[in-house]
Amino acid sequence: MTLRLLGAIQFLTVFPIHRDTGPPGRAVPFYPLVGAVLGLLGAAILLALRPAVPAAGLLVLLFWVLATGALHEDAIADCADAFRAHRTPEKIHAILKDPHIGVFGVLALLFSLLLRWQAIEHLESRLFETFAASFAISRTAPVVLAWITAPYGEGSGRVIADSLTTPAVIATIALALLAAAPLHIYALPLVTGAAALTTGARAYFTSRLGGVNGDCLGALNQVTEIYCLIVCACFFYD
Q1: What's the CA gap between 67 and 42, in Å, rounded?
Q2: C-alpha 105 chain-centroid distance
Q3: Which residues of 18-30 are buried (b: 16+ CB within 10 A; e: fewer)?
Q4: Is the alpha carbon torsion for 219, 220, 224, 225 positive or negative?
Q5: Rounded to whole angstroms, how far apart are CA atoms 215 and 31?
Q6: Are 143 and 100 in contact (CB under 8 A)?
């Protein structure tokens, strides 16, 4: 169990874990836990900085980006650049592997940061519950997507998919629901929305690419996180 927790920390954050933790798919039950902890730390930072520091939400975002190594920001930028109309799966895959970033990738990053920042700034209550639930759910959606969708190409997406098991995915979903439970009825739109986003992502990536890779999974994580934060900002705005 300890090894799998370390594996989740190693995969989802930049915190140094100097040992072999095994295939990342075996650590997925701890993804919601690591996500929830990141969310709780962000809430603590936000409360400590408000109201003395202007734009405190940006500093919370900076913490999350640094703590995760911009893993999901990189993914959403790559997908924004790659998934253009009429491109073949081979062309899409080549662009996903290209380390350079284009205009659409820059715009995706900009809107990702702006939407999350504004959602954070509008949150006035239930910060700890909101951030914990949002980060747990957003770390679970890619796990489900990898479970229900064929992997495309080589890389982290295939590594995760090949090492996933049904009990591990069920445990991941259960822990995400547990993290969302303190929001009570407000958790329902988060969970159902994440499920809808995952279903839509499966249909889209399958039709365009024939499966999913690591960037597809990371992009879903980012979109789900944005969705959850915006919904909670609507609920808990005073």
Answers
A1: 10
A2: 17
A3: eeebeebbbbbbb
A4: negative
A5: 17
A6: no
Token pair, residue 60, equals 């919370």
Q: Does a cis peptide bond (omega within 30 degrees of 0) precede residue 51?
A: yes
Amino acid at 207: S
Q: Which single residue is written with the structure tokens 């995915």?
A: 169
Ordered per-residue pLDDT tens for the chain, 238 residues: 788 889 999 999 999 888 888 778 889 999 999 999 999 999 999 999 998 898 899 999 999 999 999 999 999 999 999 998 788 999 999 999 988 999 999 999 999 999 999 999 999 899 999 999 999 999 999 999 999 999 998 888 888 888 899 999 999 999 999 999 999 999 999 999 999 999 999 999 999 999 999 999 999 999 999 999 999 999 988 6
- Per the structure block, which two tokens stand in for 238? 């005073």
Q: How far apart are CA 85 and CA 95, in angstroms?
A: 13
